[in-house]
Design brief:
The structure is a single chain. This protein is α/β, with parallel strands linked by helices and about 475 residues long. The protein has 2 domains: about 150 residues, Up-down Bundle (Ferritin), CATH 1.20.1260; about 280 residues, Rossmann fold. Helix content is about 45%, strand content about 10%. The chain contains 19 helices and 9 strands. A 9-stranded mixed β-sheet has the order 3-2-1-4-5-7-6-8-9, sandwiched between helices. β2, α12 and β3 form a beta-alpha-beta unit. α1 packs antiparallel against α6, α2 runs parallel beside α12 and α4 crosses α6. It starts with a helix and ends with a helix. About 0% of the residues have low confidence.
Length: about 475
């Protein structure tokens, strides 16, 4: 089965439907159907394993009872199908009775349908889409694990996906960060902007060899935690984790930044935090006041770093993807944040990624930062990841792959091996430059530089911010002289 062809077939059908307006609605339409199909496959397992299992979904609304076409002429289609979905299925799932005693694996059905909608207006086309989905057997291991490919394929059609720094994190990166942090069964692991659950899935894959008993599996399920603000990726994350045998995903549909960070206690902290937070966006003043005044940044990614500092356990460790502007940002809040980070944690490694790692979503340069709460930073090890020979940038046709990180893997455990891509910066040098972390590789100082438009604009923005900072300091000095 070709996932890409399957999704294209579905989207071509949806484009004929007058009710579906644009890629975002097509994805949303596809996802609620995927969820119900996946959930039905899981219920088959639960029914087999548990003699007394009862579905929270009314019998007539279970996927197996209305969506399957047995080729006997009895399958719902046309206006009858549309009427069933709009007047029976959606009201029933949105109005499910859930309370504090409802099993989480059942309550999630109501949670995911609170923001779901049926956009299709042609019941015949809807039947065609459902029939294509039924070609996928999510009770089969390989097809269950193809869900990441399904998501990656549909996201590529969402042209605005990277407009606010929200885009699919390549699996090669999520797996690498997990590999470097080495999570263990029994540790509390979190992603506070989990999207569709990529980091959590990579963590599950890494922990798989450590899970020896049903008790181990239960411990992992209890300790894996995510939060996602937007309804579509939240629904995808729930579906993704269920497909990976997490029956009761600990994924909250919420804004991680909406709680006052001063209120977090030890029970709210984690051993391992992995993230690719949204960046380039801004938060409302009502969100900023949840942070100390000195840390109230206008950049969303900065607030997530501050959040991590309040939710990381002693000896806990972090792997995070951040853009260049975190490194060179010189607003007062950004400098205060970096000072707090370097004082409270050991920022031991920064891996500078080359152009196009997140192609085709964005050409913004990004970095992998690794730190742990074991004491203050003394020095930072940098690794300037080179492009492969013959590449000017990664791209849609030349994507970033796991093997492109093999040099880092070799260097990671032996940092004095003379690799020209690596260099070390002392904390004194960072402080001398007012907490600027944007250090270039001195081993490549004589190489001819070629810049993309994105890099030139970033450089101009960086210089403009530096000039503004100098002007503001000069004004302060002159005002003091006038007094």
């Amino acid at each position: 089965m070709s996932i890409e062809n399957l999704i294209k077939r579905i989207q071509n059908i949806m484009r004929q439907d007058a009710g579906v307006d644009g890629d975002a609605q097509r994805i949303s339409q596809l996802v609620w159907m995927l969820f119900l199909k996946v959930y039905d496959a899981k219920e088959e397992f639960w029914e087999f394993e548990e003699d007394n299992f009862e579905s929270i979904i009314p019998e007539e609304c279970r996927w197996r009872n209305w969506a399957i076409d047995n080729k006997d002429g009895e399958a719902l289609t046309g206006d009858k199908l549309l009427d069933f979905v709009n007047t029976t299925l959606f009201p029933a799932l949105k109005e499910l009775q859930v309370d504090a005693f409802t099993e989480k694996r059942k309550a999630i059905v109501k949670n995911v349908f609170e923001d779901a909608n049926n956009y299709m207006k042609n019941g015949t086309l809807l039947r065609q889409v459902i029939n294509i989905l039924n070609e996928v057997d999510f009770t089969e291991y390989e097809e269950r694990h193809a869900f990441n490919d399904i998501y990656e394929t549909i996201l590529k059609d969402l042209q605005s996906a990277g407009s606010s720094g929200e885009f699919y994190t390549p699996r090669s990166l999520t797996e690498f960060l997990v590999e470097m942090l080495k999570p263990q069964v029994g540790e509390k692991i979190a992603d506070f902007a989990c999207g569709t659950g990529g980091f959590l899935i990579s963590t599950l894959d890494y922990l798989d060899d450590q899970i020896k008993t049903p008790e181990d599996k239960e411990i992992v399920q209890e300790n894996l935690f995510g939060i996602e603000k937007k309804p579509l990726p939240y629904l995808l994350a729930i579906t993704n984790l269920i497909l990976h045998d997490i029956d009761s995903p600990n994924i909250l549909h919420d804004n991680s930044l909406s709680k006052n960070v001063r209120d977090y206690k030890e029970v709210d902290r984690f051993d391992v935090i992995l993230m690719n937070p949204p960046y380039g966006g801004t938060e409302e003043e009502s969100i900023k006041i949840n942070f100390p005044v000195a840390l109230q940044s206008s950049e969303t990614a900065d607030l997530f770093i501050a959040l991590i500092l309040y939710r990381l356990k002693q000896n806990g460790r972090v792997g995070i993807v951040l853009p260049d502007n975190f490194l060179f940002g010189n607003e007062n809040s950004q400098k205060a944040l970096k000072e707090k980070l370097l004082t409270e944690c050991n920022l031991h490694t920064i891996i500078r990624l080359p152009q196009g790692v997140f192609a085709p979503y964005t050409s913004i340069r990004t970095n992998l930062l690794f730190f742990d709460k074991t004491g203050e930073t003394k020095e930072i090890h940098y690794y300037d990841l080179p492009l492969p020979s013959g590449y000017r940038s990664f791209s849609k046709t030349k994507p970033f792959k796991s093997e492109h990180l093999d040099g880092v893997r070799t260097w990671w455990s032996n940092r004095d091996n003379g690799d020209v891509n690596s260099y070390v910066v002392s904390i004194n040098e960072v402080k001398r430059l007012d907490y600027n972390l944007d250090f270039k590789n001195p081993n490549k100082a004589n190489e001819e530089n070629e810049y993309t438009l994105e890099e030139l604009l970033t450089s101009i923005d960086k210089k403009a911010k530096n000039i503004k900072s100098v002007v503001n300091k000069l004004k302060e000095v002159l005002e003091g002289v006038e007094e």
